[in-house]
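User: I want to check something. If I give you two sequences, will you return the structure for each one separately, not as a complex?

Assistant: Yes, each is folded on its own. Here is the first sequence with its structure:
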Amino acid sequence: MFRKLLRSLWAVMLVLSLSIPAFSLADEPVPLDILFLGLTSTPEDVQRVLDSDVNKVLQDAAGVKITASAVDDEQKQVVLAGNDLTDIVVIRKQTDILSMIEGGQLLPLNDLIEQYGENIRTIRPERLKMAQTLLSDGSGQAYVLPIYAGREDRAPKVSHSIYMTRWDYYKEMGYPEVKTPDDMLNLLKDMQEKYPTTDEGKPVYGVSFFTSQFSTNDFDKRFHHTFGFHTINPNILWKVSDQSMVFNYTAPDGPYWMAAEYYNKAYRMGILDPDSLSQTSEDFATKATAGQILSPWLRAFGRGFDNRMLEQDPNSLKGFETIPVDGVTLWTNVTQAAGWEEFYVAIPANCSNPEKAMQFINYCFGYDGSRLISSGIEGKHWNKVDGVPTLTDEIKKMYREGGEAWQATGINAEPYPYFLAGVAALEMHPDGGPVNLFASDDFYKSLSTPLDKEYSEHFGAEYPYGVFLKLIDEGRVFDRSTVDMRVVSGMGSAPEDIQRIDTKLLDIAVKAIPKAVLAETEEDFQKVKEQTIAELNDAQAEVSKAWWQERFDTVKALFQDQ
């Protein structure tokens, strides 16, 4: 209530200023409060970004004073029920959009975009068309705007894979052949037996995971990425290889059951972290940084250990790399023409100053705002060298080292302003450089640690991702170039009756995880699988599948000839 009262007071004070041109530095900065729905960022995380160099310049450029907060999925329900949505809201899940529109919680944006949204109208206009049609309520109004429209970059290293593990251990074991998930489990068992504890005496686990009661992504997302499934929502997947739709929970060979079988085998082999069913992502990250997890699957989790080893020895060869395995699919060569399929910027109906909120969003969705968010401040983090925007040596060093100095810059910082940028990394800025100056092969080569160089040289590449780019060229590994991301981005929300079914399906899938993972025999596992799929079907899975399949076919046909 206090926050709403404060916004109301500001609204009264600012009535006379609404006609003043945007971004006049002579103006008093306008307060805007931003809320991120569905994120686990702590208040400390948010405040660190608010205090950053990038945020200070962003605020000055846009003539605003930002406050921000983030709520996780559980807290989100309370916020939505109380309609306490602040001035700008970032919605993580498509499935929340339609109910928020129908509940009158979001402002229609067409008029605001026409008056204040030149960047939104002119840069990747597919995004606005998508927002007005497939992400709306049939009215032709845009209510939400997807972030990061355009050509995405690729990472310097593979970011998600079940085949990520300790390279130093793998080398010591003679580079044993790995072709399948079973091969990987056998390798991890051998590793755990050979290295049962860390140097500090903590127990080591071959396999570990964490879960959430509101999603199965934390359980099976690594299998989506590794085996070529693109997530539309946790149960609705796009299969990259044949452009088909897969219903994750009822597909016997889908990622959900691939994950369940993998973790169950790990459990029966004695290499599963016993905390997997109860720990948080923070617990998982702490163990990974300590070296207790031999396959952290997500690059961000392995980086903590790598950096710790480099602090102890700048020439360290201890750390995580991804074993190249034929048939995997990587997140590369992606063009998100209409923006991401998650994270949408919107203006709540109770916004204190919709005009200024739209002006701010428009700045973030422009080339300059997106460059500032992703690459930092001109004259401090990058300069024009012979007319070419070029990162400074100092900021390259900060990026490589990470830590507090890098965090203080605010470059690409989560949750804010990372989830407000509108232009994707490899879209070209009018100055001739990419929007994200960190997204280049030359820069990626400069990031290689001694371990990265050893790994790359072993496979005849210049930097870690180059190992896989060679395999893509040879047709042994696949990318996402065949996925029309406009279809993924345009799936939108289901009507309330389908949402209720999907909520029930998710609940069944989440509750089945411990039963499947802890099955004592293969026979027991198969019984759990059969019973769970039967329960899902009894909960009207086929009704949901029929609606989503029709939606998928409709959206796909819309873009088929474009």
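And separately, the second sequence with its own structure:
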Amino acid sequence: MIKYKKRKKGRITMKFKDFKYERPNIEAFVEEIKKLLDVIGSDVSVEKESEAIKAIFDLNDEMDSMITLVSIRNSLNTQDEFYEKEQEFFDNYIPELQQYQHIFSQKILLSKNRKELENIFGELMFKQAELAMKTFEPKIIPLLQQENKLSTEYSKLLASAKIEFEGGVYNLSQMGPFLQNLNRDIRHRAQLKVSEFFANNEEQLDRIYDEMVKVRTTIAHELGYENYVQLGYDRLGRTDYDYRDVKKYRDQIYHDLVPVVKELKARLAKRIGIENPKSYDLSLSFLTGNPTPKGDRAWQVDVAKKMYDEMSKETSEFFNFMLEKDLLDLDSIPGKAGGGYCTYIPKYRTPFIFANFNGTSHDVDVLTHEAGHAFQVYSSRDNYPSYRWPTYEAAEIHSMSMEFLAWPWIDGFFKEDTEKYKFYHLDSSISFLPYGVSVDEFQHEIYENPNMTPEERKATWRKIEKKYLPFKDYDDDKFMEKGTFWYRQGHIFSSPFYYIDYTLAQVLAFQYWVKSRENHEEAFASYLELCRLGGSKSFVELIKAVELNNPFEEGTVLKVIKPIKAYLDSVDDEKL
């Protein structure tokens, strides 16, 4: 039912650099899509209607491929004027093109052949269409254009960072190793230097975010929503839970997990010999230094190749395909956008992995994490377009679970640091959850009270931070103490309400950690099934299909954390 038989298949022979970008002819695209839309919902057979739907999929795939190529090449070099202009072009046109998706949704929902079409394409596509109908009307196009421009402005601002430190000039990602340095003075000064960059741009960041909140609130009101909260959920395609379920989940994290994390931070203080650790101490986990990969980027890729060759025939085929086509860009260089991501180029049927290696264990985490995303979409690339990717919260299950499925091979990356890494990986994964829900609670507060001043927003962040991260003491960093850490969390600016998805997925990925330790082969088989399902089921239905425990159900967090805490308690971390 979910397989997309129409798309031409065949082996892609060219490398990423040869993937051709050509600015689409918008007028021709609109003319063609209008013709096809005239067929859908008209008095035609289900065969003709389904063919028109598949033709629209092909047309959209072509457009999406050009949009994605621009996005990738713009993020690879934010100073490339050509791709900067092309990104501006799409920032302007994408909202206009959304109206045709809106018409498409409207027509399939009203089709006389709807029942038969649901049998062909699956019911979820129609549920998603119902949400799409609520989240767009042509009148909001100028507002969406404004929102896109603000998001690009934020990314460009952060990518512009040139921080002078210890005789060098670094971007934000490259400052990471200094924040984990064994020398406390270096860690302290590095934090202050990073804060200085944000302080120097405070006015601009406040303006960008204030405009974002206001434009999103206006969009919500224009579409008949009380505020942006439910619109944000609907935009993310959440069909089987709402903000009340998320609040119950956050409460579980607060009651069942925050005490565990406080305990872990107390162990950290003892381990590094600092009685009252400050925020700049929290990134250091061991006096012997944090675990690090024992080679450069090329060496790590070689280790990953060996791992994926041995993990399964499916992962071997996938990773070798990625290497042959140069579909990984991992070095951190000036002008490159920050962060890491995986995306998909439909025309070439290829995932693409983007990252910023900096010599820390995060390199291995981001490689396995983004490879999880890439393997998932590679495994479901023959699905109908809307089912290639799961919804956001489900997509993160594949990436975070891959981090844990890599454990039997992790000694290849970390050698003598392997046990240290395993402790660090679990410790940091658990410790991330309270921060993740802080980001979510903050956004609920912001969009429920959109007229907050910038100072009120900062005070709100610090209040929530103290609730979930009571151990975070910023010492003399007055800029962070007033509540500005959220400036560096790009999801708050560009993908509102997305960040909770990482935490939900983490709770599910922990279940794969447990399964893998019991029987790695069975755990991988379940994971492979999840990857192949893609987005053909909603979040709750996906986790039911592979028999994982639902994070929204009371007691799930406590149950999942129990074996992990037992593992961490069994480790004499002061010897690591």
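Because they were folded independently, the notes below concern the second chain alone. Residues 46-76 form the longest helix (31 residues). The longest strand covers residues 350-357.
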